[in-house]
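We modelled the chain as a single entity of 329 amino acids. Its sequence is:
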Amino acid sequence: MPARRVAVLLNRAAQGVTAARLRWFRDHVPAGDLFVPDGIAAARGPESTIARDHDVVCTGGGDGTFMLAAETLLALAPARLPALLPLRLGTGNAVHDTCGSSPPTPRGLAHDLARAADPGARIAPLRLLEVDGRLTQFAGVGLDADWAADYAQLIKRHVGTGPLLPLLRGAPGYALTALALTLPRLVRRPFVTVTLIAPDGAEALDGDGRAIHRLPPGATLYTGPATMVSMSTVASYSAGFRFFRHVDRIGDAFELKVAVASAFQVMRHARRLLAGAADPARMLDFAVRTLRVELPVATRYHVGGDVAPATRGFTVGTSARAVPVLRLA
């Protein structure tokens, strides 16, 4: 079988798209297959060409870059949708974990480009959420939305692409953000108040992802204080943590997790819980197809790691659309 034709679409604003990496890509990717628009939002023209001429698109950036590329390609509605493979060059890398993307070293990037071109590499659909009409793989309100806002303020805006970035990219920046901004706020305001309604019903899950109780359409799944409310169609919540470890066992539903924990409990158990450990005293799990999140006061939330304006409510549902991606066997 002939090799797949691979396009590389880089987001100049992504923290991993440095001048040195741009030079590497220009040395290793044919000019007709490399696209570096001025701002990922300006990529509609290149993506029209990509959709027509390429079999696989490697996106250079984080989860937001990947999802914007997916949305644009889906909107173009080509006869054959190219598969996507995200390169690990951004802040959030949940989709990258799902696709098994390599570390962003020259060797790792070369491996990903070779894998994208390999006609035998597995392609499978990636299910998506729609959050008030916006496509994403995960969303949430509470602690994770606060952390996303804090990371954008501290690392993306203040550090940017400056000389400190190599020291703070990845886990060091995540930890600094949590210690400097997110955890102190959690001490002051440990909970948000939410009401979660499932218009199409839901299943409560046990620690092994088995349905233990079916809730009827219109049921209130939870109401009261919560540390974090998160929903996803992918297992990873970035950094290799399989927070949504039941998501591949629940059919066409998405996984909803409701955490109720004090600041002390978060600090003590965060690593174990992010890895997907069962903890029925602090974590509730549901398989859901549509969800209404209601908030008594306007509260910020995130969609794919991008912070959305404060709102009194939003709706989440499984999307009828999916994108083909290179996935691990």
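As a brief sanity check on the tokenised model: The longest helix spans residues 171-188. The chain has a mean pLDDT of 88.
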